[in-house]
Amino acid sequence: MFETIAIVGATGAVGRIIRQLLEEREFPYRNIRFLASKRSAGTKITFKGEEHVVEEMTPEIFSGIDLAIGSTPDETAKEFCPWAVERGCVVVDESGYWRMDPNVPLVVPEVNPEALENHRGLISSPNCSTTQMVVAMKPLHEFGRIRRVVVSTYQATSGAGVKGQEDLKAGARAFLAGEDYQYQAFKHPIAFNLVPQIGSPKYQGYTSEEMKMVHETHKIFGDDTIRVCPTCIRVPVDNCHSESILVETEKKITVAQARELFAATPGIKVVDDLDSGKYPMPAQCDGDDAVFVGRIREDLSSDNGLAFWCVSDNLRKGAATNAVQIAELLVKSQAAV
Amino acid sequence: MFETIAIVGATGAVGRIIRQLLEEREFPYRNIRFLASKRSAGTKITFKGEEHVVEEMTPEIFSGIDLAIGSTPDETAKEFCPWAVERGCVVVDESGYWRMDPNVPLVVPEVNPEALENHRGLISSPNCSTTQMVVAMKPLHEFGRIRRVVVSTYQATSGAGVKGQEDLKAGARAFLAGEDYQYQAFKHPIAFNLVPQIGSPKYQGYTSEEMKMVHETHKIFGDDTIRVCPTCIRVPVDNCHSESILVETEKKITVAQARELFAATPGIKVVDDLDSGKYPMPAQCDGDDAVFVGRIREDLSSDNGLAFWCVSDNLRKGAATNAVQIAELLVKSQAAV
């Protein structure tokens, strides 16, 4: 058990869910502290029935903290993670800043828990669109060795934070009333529209969000020969990312085998009955920690391909849940020592 | 010129646009008539400033019509097309019913105009999701021979007709007000949600909409060795279908070549400048007859692959415009005789 734990970025969209999860999952600790930027410091939040005051994050504050779970913008994580690690505080970081650092393990507990061993005080949790995909890939990869992935995403506005969610609702209200609306989080209108750009231009016409799906997948599986072609699209959905995924494997996987493999994997829920109109939909996966798969079928365009549809709550498994699961593994490995 | 022309299904979502297009494009005729089911017969519509009464479609009525452009449900087309053809009326049919009939050419004027030759009085126009895809495929196929297509669609509610569009708006209004709404056109809520089923279960876990994209593509290119893996998803967008498309070709096509090939193709508009945040989005393509392509990039997962994003107004190029273009070709071929 860690004596004193902290949530860094406690007032954000993901921070709020980390708080919920620590309650729900009875995460062990003696003391808990809530940190945020200067702007949010002083905010009062209720946790397990008690009122707490959010503290400003400073280098010194981490001297009194043993484990920090961080969900902050990249620039904040760049600063606070070294402050914490230097003072002996273990950090599970949700931001994008440290993920590709060779000294930092990038962990999805269902996929590569072994990467946690010999960590140097800082562990990264992957990007939301990567996490749900690698959870679904894992049993297929173990069985048939994945050589190639073609993925098109349908990403919710909550991926752009609370402001993204507010934008969608306010934009939709304005549109329906025939009024103009000035978007805050998006550079193009998202209500009743699609925006085929998430992140900034990064590599040969691919965006930063798309390249995260390539590089993080390689790092998590420890195999950069898996070829990944991602297309990331923002859709007018409040929460839960969806992905149309096609994998090609060395060894053929039938639909029946895939369904069994998925069903036997902790963290995956199979909802796959087209005849009865049953498949995962974002509005129904909201608030769930699982990665949902459905529409499982053999690829009509290759001999060893499998196509499926994958939905997961990007604020939960895509962010908060994965970070808390990493923290739980750290607690377990302490107990084992 | 055809002496007397008719629009069958004149009061529907696509019928309304066919009317607009005949005006806009100054389609030649001496007399025009508007037909619909018994339910809509008697409706008054204004066309070129004159009031017309919609007539009920009967077998006999086609004796006085030389060219009919039909946009009706499949079951209606099954009935009326033989009535018309038997009476010497040429039919351009938008429905799905006749498309795969070996005696009926399936035509996209930019792709296979030659299929019109020797028609037997009935010509089909493809499904909306197929049409925009094959227009984009055509220049790539001619240059590099496409062997495989992986496509994930983002299809607007207008594909389910006027009721689909009303459902989205009413459903969104109710959701924002915290009220329930009973959907008419969709079996699952579509506002702020995604539904990974369009059409009915058809073949090995694929839906009828998905299999249309396979079979119609084969018929239009006259090549059933092109392997197609489609995933069709309904999204909360009013109008314009979007598609994330990956093609693999025999001969490699670079991004620069693809951009040139697309730009040189009538009917295609290239909007492709990620650095400036420019790419096709459904809200901006609404009301345009073109097929828009953007986000053109080399496939990171194969050696001869090309990925791009394709948006088109499904009521226009996906339906009305394509049918009117076929009718225009028929007028031209008459003139040539």
UniProtKB/TrEMBL annotation, chains A, B:
Reaction(s) the record says it catalyses: L-aspartate 4-semialdehyde + phosphate + NADP(+) = 4-phospho-L-aspartate + NADPH + H(+)
Known EC number: 1.2.1.11
Pathway involvement of the protein, from the record: Amino-acid biosynthesis; L-lysine biosynthesis via DAP pathway; (S)-tetrahydrodipicolinate from L-aspartate: step 2/4; Amino-acid biosynthesis; L-methionine biosynthesis via de novo pathway; L-homoserine from L-aspartate: step 2/3; Amino-acid biosynthesis; L-threonine biosynthesis; L-threonine from L-aspartate: step 2/5
Keyword field contains Amino-acid biosynthesis: yes
Binding site for substrate: Q155, R234
Keyword tags: Amino-acid biosynthesis, Diaminopimelate biosynthesis, Lysine biosynthesis, Methionine biosynthesis, NADP, Oxidoreductase, Threonine biosynthesis
Transmembrane segments: none
Top-level EC class as recorded in UniProt: oxidoreductase
Domain Semialdehyde dehydrogenase NAD-binding intervals: 4-119
Family matches, as NCBIfam families: asd_B (TIGR01296), PRK14874.1 (NF011456)
PANTHER family in the cross-refs: ASPARTATE-SEMIALDEHYDE DEHYDROGENASE, DEHYDROGENASE, PUTATIVE-RELATED
Protein name: Aspartate-semialdehyde dehydrogenase
Species for this entry: Lacipirellula parvula
